[in-house]
Amino acid sequence: MTIAILVILAYLVGSLPTAVLVSKKYFGIDIREHGSGNAGATNTFRILGSRAGTAVMLVDVMKGFLAAKLALFSNYSWNSEAITNLQVFLGLAAVVGHIFPIWAEFKGGKGIATLFGMILSIQPLVAVSLIGVFVVMLFLTRYVSLSSISASVAFPLLILFIFKEPEVSYRVFAIGTALLVILTHYKNINRLLNGNENKVPLFKKRKVEEK
Fold first, then answer.
1. How many CB atoms lie within 10 A of CB 180?
2. I need a surface site. Which of 54, 94, 146, 203 has the fewest CB within 10 A?
3. Measuring CA to CA, how many Å separate 205 from each of 52, 53, 136, 186?
């Protein structure tokens, strides 16, 4: 299968608008019309509660995982540097699909969960470590945004100093990912610093109020 077809498939997988589908089917709203307006796990947690947020997050993670695994259908050797680069590329295509989903008027989320899914596909131990950072921060602070930022910053630290990844392109990718997440969360960072970032409800379903 050609690289172009694999990239298109990865984008289409990433375009599945999980948060929009869940919010419309089970809550009768469009999640993009509430909270931050993002169609991602963070806004779902905040508006619809932990059960819906967890479901959206898991599916969004799976999108990145499956997109990266599409590299299996390429002609590259599975243990080659080229296959790793292709997995990263396909994972990023899924992230782009999540942010600009063709199935939801190109209005999606920030792609953090899908990005984690890609990492889980390429380096499971690193991904599990990042999920651990995310979960601990979420339980300690109840801020999904801070948990996402913390896990993203931990990514290059793990790659460079713990797992000591030898491939330069992947190390650069890890650093770039951390910087990108920080930049896309600048509004959240400002709210955290000002003390007005919303916490998410844990272990309970939140009732959505009509506007």
1. 16
2. 203
3. 8, 10, 21, 28
d(CA 192, CA 185): 10
Query: How many C-beta atoms surround the C-beta of residue 76 within 10 A?
Result: 16
pLDDT string in tens for the chain (211-residue length): 799 999 999 999 999 999 999 999 999 999 999 988 999 988 898 899 889 999 999 999 999 999 999 999 998 877 777 888 899 999 999 999 999 999 999 999 989 899 999 999 999 999 999 999 999 999 999 898 899 899 999 999 999 999 988 878 889 889 999 998 898 888 889 999 999 988 876 655 555 544 4
Q: Map 171-211 to HEC letters.
A: HHHHHHHHHHHHHHCHHHHHHHHHCCCCCCCCCCECCCCCC
Written as one letter, the residue type at 27 is F
Structure tokens at 44: 């779902």
- Report the distance separating Cα 193 and Cα 155, nearest Å: 23
In which element (H, E) is residue 98 found?
Answer: helix 81-99
Q: Residue 13, SS3?
A: helix
Radius of gyration for the alpha carbons in the chain, expressed in angstroms and rounded: 17
Instruction: Quote the pTM value.
Output: 0.84
HEC assignment per residue over 117-186: HHHHHHCHHHHHHHHHHHHHHHHHHCCHHHHHHHHHHHHHHHHHHHCCCCCHHHHHHHHHHHHHHHHHCH
